[in-house]
Amino acid sequence: MFALSDLKESIEKGKFLNGSKVNIGTFALREYILADAGFNSSDYVVTPFTFHGIEYSLTEHQINYNRRISRCRVQVENGLGFLKNRFPILKKRNNYTP
């Protein structure tokens, strides 16, 4: 779905996620899309590290990274759930075409 989306096209044309940085306090961070393992990593899509069939194949740093991404995704999903409960129209499919 993402591969065929207008968002991906806009990103590739440099309209979004073009490497510019966002200042948060004293940090300058690039923008990314957090995704699950179903997506391919790219310059703008960040996915968790995966096991390659070998138990304990991830480093402690990679395990912590995966936990943090998971927590972030859970918070986003909870926020979307809250919005859908608050505004039931968001539960309906949007067939808008410009």
Largest sheet, described in full? 2 strands, antiparallel
State the total count of DSSP E strands. Answer: 4
Which stretches are low in confidence, meaning pLDDT under 50 for 5 or more residues running? none
Radius of gyration: 17 Å
Q: Strand order of the main beta sheet, please?
A: 1-2
Q: Please bin the fraction of helical residues.
A: 25-40%
Helix count equals 2
SSE ordering? HEEEEH
Q: Label the overall shape.
A: globular
- When the domains are counted, the total is 1
Structural class call reads: alpha+beta
Through-space gap between termini = 18 Å
Mean pLDDT, as a whole number?
Answer: 82
Share of β-strand residues: 5-15%
Keywords:
alpha+beta; two-stranded antiparallel ribbon; two-stranded parallel ribbon; 4 strands
Describe, in plain words, how this protein is organized in 3D.
This protein is an alpha+beta fold and 98 residues long. The two termini are 18 Å apart. The strands form two sheets. Strands 1-2 form a two-stranded antiparallel ribbon. It has one domain. The model has no long low-confidence stretch (mean pLDDT 82). The chain has helices spanning 6-12, 60-86, and strands spanning 21-24, 27-30, 33-34, 45-46.
Write the topology of this structure.
Elements: H1 6-12, E1 21-24, E2 27-30, E3 33-34, E4 45-46, H2 60-86
Parallel strand pairs: 3-4
Antiparallel strand pairs: 1-2
